[in-house]
Amino acid sequence: MAGKAGLTAEFGNANLCRREQQRGERVPELRLQPVDDPAAWYGPDLAARDDWIHRLDAAETDELLAAVAHAAATAKPLREVERDDFPLPKLSARLAAIVRAVDHGAGLCLIKGVPVEAMSEDEAALALWGMGRHVGLPQPQDAAREVLHHVRDTGGKVEADPNLRIYQTNAEQAFHNDGGDLVMLLCRRPAKSGGASRMASAVTVFNEVLKREPGLAAELQAPFHFDARGQQLPGHPPVQSVPIYVWHADRLNALYKRPYIGFAQRFEDVPRLTEAQTRALDLVDALCDSPDINIAFELEPGDIQIASNFTIFHARDSFEDFDDPERRRHMLRLWLGLADGRPLPAVYAGTREFGPLFEIAGRD
């Protein structure tokens, strides 16, 4: 394994960016040792376990349906529904345990059995929202600060619309992570075919990069430019500069969107990707795509996948949808912030994914 002196000589771009960050006093600590963390799992091992899967029992299902009815009876707009408007006497404790396991453990959970077949679209949205309010604080997902997104194909193409995001199409979504501490995605209807979910541990990917090419692990801890696709925070530029990996407060944090790094190259003032940066990105993609590292599964109606946005990269296969609009793939998504979440690296303050977390009382 190359020493730090060798890394400095070979990967000047990473160290140049690091010196630039130091002038702004926003430089994270460089991590060049493997990370021992419960989130550092391998797909085949996780597939052999079921401790990350929770199926709602009959009592929890009944409680959820009753909470939806109770919240609907308040006649409050969805975004004004508070935790107390959505009573979950027993399921709330289960959700709290799930969040602790996701945030401090494997980084993901699959909840099965939400009775979406007994719910309208609005009721399904209310079910996800209410469960989310027992988990954390809904976070804005776009420049309009919308906090609940309907994930479905709009028929557009990202190549034709610079503000269109990939989740609004039927295209494959490469491995990436979202905003907030956690993402909750409820499956209301799957596609006619395709659309499988895949997840990979960002911690495992980092450890494998370090094992194979330690210089590239250093490169990934220097800033990359991401196209915000028109969804930047108010007062911030359309491109954000942030490392893919940040070691902070003894925890590894990740932010990765390979297509959006590529999209950022359309801006003249964004530096061209270096050979080392491209090699690093290619290695991350290859590791995420490896069946020895990722886990794949089909989301069924009533499934909710929950993932840590600091330790999990997730992907979606391309899909073919039904012609009938009433049968087309439909997911509902929340980004959630945790009042007691992990310490936040200062470099995340201006990002659209994690910047709003700094607004939560007690977070830093």
Question: How does the SSE layout of this entry go?
Answer:
Layout: H1 4-10, H2 12-23, H3 43-47, E1 53-55, H4 58-73, H5 91-104, E2 108-112, H6 121-133, E3 137-138, E4 148-151, E5 173-176, E6 182-189, E7 193-194, E8 197-201, H7 202-212, H8 214-219, E9 223-227, E10 239-243, E11 245-248, E12 251-254, H9 258-263, H10 275-289, E13 295-297, E14 304-308, E15 312-316, E16 319-320, E17 330-337
Parallel strand pairs: 1-2
Antiparallel strand pairs: 2-14, 3-17, 4-17, 5-15, 6-14, 6-17, 7-16, 8-13, 8-15, 9-10, 11-12
Helix pairs in contact: 4-6, 7-10
3D structure, described in words:
- There is one protein chain.
- The protein has 10 helices and 17 strands.
- The protein starts with a helix and ends in a 27-residue tail after the last strand.
- By secondary structure, the chain is of the alpha+beta class.
- Helix 4 packs across helix 6.
- Helices cover 29% and strands 20% of the residues.
- The chain has one domain: Clavaminate synthase-like (Double-stranded beta-helix), CATH 3.60.130.10.
- Strands 1, 2, 3, 4, 6, 14 and 17 form a 7-stranded mixed sheet that branches. Strands 5-15-8-13 form a 4-stranded antiparallel sheet. Strands 7-16 form a two-stranded antiparallel ribbon.
